Batch of 2 targets.
Target 1
Amino acid sequence: MNPELTDTIIKTLGEAKIASPVRKSENGKPECSFQPDEDRVLVEINTEKILEQIRLGIEPASFEKAGPRSHIFFDPSKVRCAIVTCGGLCPGLNDIIRAIVLELTYGYGVRGIYGIRYGLAGFIPEYRYDVVDLTPAEVEDIHGSGGTVLGSSRGPQDIGQIVDCLERMNVGILFTVGGDGTLMASTRICDEIAKRGLKISVVGIPKTIDNDIFMVGRSFGFETAVEMATAAIRTAHTEAVGYPNGIGLVKLMGRHSGFIAAHAALAQQDVNFVLVPEVNFDLEGENGFLKTLETRLLDRGHAVVVAAEGAGQKFFEGENAERDASGNLKLHDIGMFLKSEIARYFDSINMEINLKFIDPSYMIRSHPANSNDNVFCSFLARNAVHAGMAGKTRLLVGYWHDQFVHVPMDASAGKRKRIDPNGRLWMSVQEATGQRSMTNAHESCE
Ligand SMILES: Nc1ncnc2c1ncn2[C@@H]1O[C@H](COP(=O)(O)OP(=O)(O)O)[C@@H](O)[C@H]1O
Ligand SMILES: O=P(O)(O)OC[C@H]1O[C@](O)(COP(=O)(O)O)[C@@H](O)[C@@H]1O
């Protein structure tokens, strides 16, 4: 184990003892000193008290702290591990894969590490996706690239077949890197493992640039996404001030939660309107978006509008509601909608505008992680390895109140973190944009 990292973890987490399964043999190669102990059992992180608090709507004061444990469950010389990345891309996926491989190899002396191609589909024989052997050499340079070297996918896969594959490959620890869908799938994989009485740990690493995973304070890639979104807003502002009655309209990702839009608007305070899924707004009327935009143009001559993709979906009610392969509702394009509504409105009042629409969504999502996210990914991944090697299962490695912690999968699955319309973040957005009259008059969407 990297002594520097170990020290940091000891200081941060106050761990008294550190697992040290690897020692150097006479020829300098790592050798496992771990003696399997029959009494050791896989530990389900399913703390009843935490789940009960969440059921009652009380924020849990703490979770079990993440970090290396004094006893490990799996024999590093025998255990095989698998990594799978699922759902939409996110900056930092390759950093996570790389850090898992390096910690397993150099921290614990594990040799058999497999990469599953194209998400959960990679477990299913009919797709014929080859498994990748993940070695330090294989992952050496991947952290500089966006996306995931393993590939990803959406779409339902048979849980029985996934566990069959884990059995066939003799996998002891499965690392699932994904969002709320992956979390649901992971809990079902855990159920099937338990039903079959297998000794397989499933450790989740929460992934979503939307930063909306429940009971996870910060998800990797979010900071990179905000940075990139801020650059797009800056461009929109430059374009808007460059022409008479210039309007810069930026659409950002955020299916259910507008965290990227809210944070980026606060980072680049040239934004006049932030539209998020959590807060309703009207188009027409005195306090409606279009009239408020007109007032802003008459007052200052330019405006910047930032819309998260899940905002204003009520305007499409009654239209076809399609779903993607994973069952997520396909959203109507709020950016294109606002673009045409703005054009229609100003045409109707005979006022000339210059509108520039920017949609940087996929440029943001496929970007490599920034330095802070690089560091964050490394800690998340290494803590996931510690949890897995210690025989913990059915948990997510999360970041909660400035600590890396073990979040029971069941505490997070099926729920979502959203902007509180009465909370400090949204208040700050309203103050920074001056849009209070437009969105304050309306209720939250849920
Ligand atoms: N309720 C569920 N049960 C089992 N598998 C699920 C469930 N929801 C999603 N999945 C699977 O998890 C994978 C990732 O889900 P998806 O929603 O696409 O992305 P994300 O994990 O980023 O939310 C997909 O293969 C999807 O079919
Ligand atoms: O175009 P795609 O691949 O369907 O992904 C779009 C979705 O990706 C996200 O950024 C993240 O979604 P997931 O967490 O489900 O992967 C959503 O905000 C957005 O709706």
Target 2
Amino acid sequence: MTNSGIPPFLSLQQATVHFSTGTGTGTSRQALNGITLDIRQGEFVALVGPNGSGKSTLASVMLGLCPLSRGNCMLQEGALLRGVLQQPDTQVLGDTIEEELALTRAHLGESAEQLESLREAALRKVGLRLPADTPFSALSGGQRQLVNLALALSLRPSGLLLDEATAMLDPHIREQVLAVVATAHREGMTVIWITHRMEEAAAADRIIALEAGKIAFDGTPEAFFYGSGVESTQLVTVPAAGSSAAVQSRGTSEDADGSGANSPDPQSACERLALELPFVVQTVRALRRRGLSVSGRPLFPEQLAVSLRASVPAGTGGASR
Ligand SMILES: Nc1ncnc2c1ncn2[C@@H]1O[C@H](COP(=O)(O)OP(=O)(O)OP(=O)(O)O)[C@@H](O)[C@H]1O
């Protein structure tokens, strides 16, 4: 249960997964190590971490595709979590859009007319206009992913889990996928977004970072990228308590006024995990290193513009040539 008494959308308790890697003793790999977390209905959670940290294994556990060696995973009663994976081809069974939709919704016993109207609505949602008998093989990789997303949404799931769903897409289609997911989230859908792109993670309500199968960070994007987040005690890369680095990792990047404008930025969880900071955060750090005051913890270009405007004393804003 959450503090509000409403059961979480998804709850993991000590979720642990060992994969067997051979037949002898000691031939297993621990992909997840005691993950405990709750995700609330309607949250937008970005799941990040270095290669091999356990993100896809956690995704499979959440989708009910990977059994736990220990612990448990509970989905809210009546909730439906639908996955959209990096390779749409691995999820598609039908030869055409029409066939795939019929297969996706076979258990609902709908008429041909109902399926047609659903198909049109689903494709419209992702901005595609394609004949129903278009073979998947005739679609580009980006179109396939959009169709895959449309089919997932056509089931009206209460949650969507996207595992590197934009990794193979060109920037235009990636933006389209992000916009469709953002709209679904605004309409109340829970979103779990696995990504290596920190710009995408910055748009989430909450970032959970994994390292070596454990939760290394769980907090806001601002805290993840700028420091001062609530770090998990499971953080495996933090040096022993008492070392200067450990103290620094739990320090705050904010000044007394909360702006963070003039303090040196401590190393953030994002940097410690060797993940690339979003471009805007890199820019803020570079400006501060050069002695420029930038207020707040902007994550997006528009926020940076506001921060810079707020930081420049009145009358000194215009550059003269
Ligand atoms: N089927 C499997 N059999 C054995 N080991 C596995 C299997 N699947 C994953 N692993 C191991 O579990 C660990 C976590 O893998 P996982 O794919 O979940 O990480 P990831 O964070 O998604 O990585 P990436 O970012 O590279 O996709 C890795 O050490 C991986 O080698």
